[in-house]
């Protein structure tokens, strides 16, 4: 599991979105939004998508953008819920506060929650001063 360092200056917004693998035409569901999320990152993702996030899916989604803080409850349950509308080949970007920030999620808790949800941690990216992103995927044997 490698840690990618991604700059968060406004001119780099599209490179952050590219690092997250978000592309025009994808269906992205956002869960866990609150007023503490990174609005610059959200705007950059929306600019690339060219349409709004899905909040209640009527179709399967390609990516779930899940904002999560330690006090949000059981992360394993949150990840299982995030799988509900995700395509078999889709993935979750779990956005958690960075080390030392309010709501920081311990890596051991993240690993346990991923295992509980039947997911594997693919990589982690530093996407802003306040947030880091963890890409969670179904194990290759589980994708059909």
Overall geometric form:
globular
Query: Whole-number average pLDDT?
Result: 88
Tally of alpha and pi helices: 4
Give the total of beta strands: 6
The strand line-up of the biggest sheet is 1-5-6-4-3-2
Tell me the helix content: 25-40%
Q: What about the largest sheet?
A: 6 strands, mixed
From the helix content, strand content and strand pairing, which structural class follows? Answer: alpha/beta
Radius of gyration: 14 Å
User: Which ranges are low-confidence, i.e. pLDDT below 50, for 5 or more consecutive residues?
Assistant: 1-11
Q: Termini, distance in Å?
A: 23 Å
Instruction: Tell me the series of helices and strands, N- to C-terminal.
Output: EHEHEHEHEE
Percent strand = 25-35%
Summarize the structure.
This protein is α/β, with parallel strands linked by helices.
Task: Please give the structural blueprint.
Elements: E1 3-5, H1 13-19, E2 28-31, H2 39-49, E3 61-67, H3 75-82, E4 86-97, H4 107-116, E5 120-126, E6 131-137
Parallel strand pairs: 1-5, 2-3, 3-4
Antiparallel strand pairs: 4-6, 5-6
Helix pairs in contact: 1-2, 3-4
Describe the fold and architecture:
- By secondary structure, this protein is an alpha/beta fold.
- The chain contains four helices and six strands; from the N terminus they run βαβαβαβαββ.
- The chain has helices spanning 13-19, 39-49, 75-82, 107-116; strands spanning 3-5, 28-31, 61-67, 86-97, 120-126, 131-137.
- The protein has a six-stranded mixed beta sheet, covered by helices on one side.
- Strand 2, helix 2 (39-49) and strand 3 (61-67) form a beta-alpha-beta unit.
- Helix 1 crosses helix 2 and helix 3 (75-82) packs across helix 4 (107-116).
- The longest helix has 11 residues, at 39-49.
- The chain is globular, with a radius of gyration of 14 Å.
- The relative contact order is 0.21.
- Residues 1-11 have low confidence and may be disordered.
């Amino acid at each position: 599991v490698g840690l990618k360092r991604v700059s968060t200056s406004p001119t780099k917004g599209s490179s952050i979105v590219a690092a997250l693998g978000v592309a025009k035409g994808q269906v992205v569901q956002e869960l866990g939004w609150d007023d503490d999320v990174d609005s610059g990152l959200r705007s950059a993702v929306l600019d690339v998508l060219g349409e709004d996030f899905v909040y209640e899916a009527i179709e399967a989604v390609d990516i779930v953008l899940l904002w999560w803080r330690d006090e949000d409850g059981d992360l394993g349950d949150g990840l299982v819920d995030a799988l509900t509308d995700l395509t078999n080949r889709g993935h979750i970007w779990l956005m958690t506060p960075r080390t030392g920030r309010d709501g920081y999620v311990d890596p051991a808790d993240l690993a346990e929650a991923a295992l509980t949800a039947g997911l594997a941690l693919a990589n982690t990216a530093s996407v802003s001063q306040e947030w880091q992103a963890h890409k969670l995927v179904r194990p290759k044997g589980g994708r059909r």
